[in-house]
Amino acid sequence: MQGNEASGISKTLGDFVAGASWGAVAAQSHEAKRSILNFFATSLGSAFDPAVSTALRILAPFSGAASSAIIGRTERLDALCAAFVNAISANLLDYDDTHPDTIIHPAAPVAAPVLALAEARKLSGRDVLTAFVLGVEIECRIGSAVSPGHYARGWHITSTCGIFGAAVASAKLLRLPAERVANAIGIAASQSAGIVENLPTAAKNVSVGNAARNGLFAALLAAEGYAAAPRAIEGPLGWARAMGDELNLQRLTRGLGETWEIAKNTYKPYPAGIVFHAVIDACFRLRSRLEGRLDQIASVTVAGSPLLLARGDRPVENERDARVSIHHAVACSLWIGAAGVEEFSPATVFRPDLVRLRRKVRAELDASLPDGAARVTVRLLSGETSTETVMSPRGSLADPLSDRDIEAKLRASLSLGGSDWDAEGLIDAVWRLDTLDDVTSLVSPSDGGGWIAQPSTTEPFPSNMEGRS
């Protein structure tokens, strides 16, 4: 689809979003359901995490009508506050979906406001899926148009670009005309924020929550007539220049409406930064080869791209550090043989045996390895060495998780997160999302009359994701 960039990128995107129907996105609906199912899995896994409970406690006194569910819990808030809290819980465990070209985690900032608003307005599953696909499309296209420099400069791209997805998706649910969708995009540009330096802290989750809430807020303002500059994205003093990048217009508009970014989405088998997944897979392979001799490890060397080292060559002082640590990725996968939620919990992170092994891990640069790949070499006390290189880790486009893998992830996350929501009912409803006339039953178990868990014998989600197809 060719846009009229001379009139402003916001207009081009606004025309596209306002004109898109269910028929235009229906072919992408299965991948959208996979992403939404994964969104529920990650949210349920952290439903009662202190960071989620704290945000809920702070926002509750300021919330308006309690129209929208907090995923995995019985509390309810208004749509704006629910979008914030649910985006935090979806992103908290570093277990969410990933768009490889940009390293955006698409669902958290988009699904959270879409579900909160759709529940408040009692909208249909097709409305949700249409809005979600369009929101993911715009956030990822804008992200692609400023990558890789945007992230490299320190902008947390899930937050800074996620707000555009949230704004667009919310505007679509509100059935705004093209001009007002364009204004929602421009209003979102003035609220885009989030920095990479904060990734190992709770401040990261604040910016992801703000992307969801403020994107919805931008759409609500646009619906009431608030306007934005027509070139808020690409103007000489617009968002892209302010963020330090020239906008690649070809990446932003080429194939718009013909190719879809959600088709590139991937899902994590491990609750850690995606660049560490190859490290984990390599260690699983090495562990099987070194069985019975793990206590003879003298050193471990992890080689990877500049991105791997920049994100993960860090001391581990808390469980958040562990999720973005080369050293802990090695320790848990090599020593324990698992890399699930429990392996990144405080009780495991500070085990003395894992601390000792982390001290033996060294990271080194190998610029010939692409982002997402890793080479791990173990040297034993005898001097014997063993090496594994992983180019396409589990969960990547080359080795994707199956539908059943994502279902298993939800079951295990729900159990670990302590929610009493019913996994089987929720899984079934997500797969039938396009048939629901009202999504209230999807996100509000107490209203829907059947989401509270019944006794179950479902198999646990294997922490090393040995695949089921």
Mean pLDDT: 92
Architecture of the largest domain, according to CATH? Orthogonal Bundle
- Physical arrangement of strands within the biggest beta sheet: 4-3-5-6
Shape: globular
Structure classification? alpha+beta
CATH top level of the largest domain is Mainly Alpha
Report the sheet-strand fraction: 5-15%
The percent range for helix content is 40-55%
Number of strands: 6
Rg from Cα: 22 Å
CATH T-level fold name of the largest domain: 2-methylcitrate dehydratase PrpD
Q: Name the poorly predicted regions.
A: 1-6, 447-469
**Count of domains:** 2
Largest sheet: 4 strands, mixed
* CATH homologous superfamily designation of the largest domain: 2-methylcitrate dehydratase PrpD
The first-to-last residue Cα distance is 36 Å
> Count of DSSP helices?
23
Order of helices and strands: HHHHEEHHHHHHHHHHEHHHHHEEEHHHH
Structure in words:
This protein is α+β, with helices and mostly antiparallel strands and about 475 residues long. The protein folds into two domains: about 5-265, Orthogonal Bundle (2-methylcitrate dehydratase PrpD); about 275-390, 2-methylcitrate dehydratase PrpD (60s Ribosomal Protein L30, Chain: A). The chain is built from 23 helices and six strands. It has helices at about 10-20, 20-25, 30-45, 50-60, 80-90, 105-120, 125-145, 150, 155-175, 180-190, 200-225, 240, 250-255, 275-290, 305-310, 320-325, 325-335, 345-350, 350-360, 405-415, 425-430, 440-445, 445-450, and strands at about 70, 75, 295-305, 360-365, 375-380, 385-390. The protein has a four-stranded mixed β-sheet. A hairpin with a 4-residue loop joins strand 5 and strand 6. Helix 7 runs antiparallel to helix 9. It is globular, with a radius of gyration of 22 Å. The two termini are about 35 Å apart. Residues about 1-5 and about 445-469 have low confidence and may be disordered.
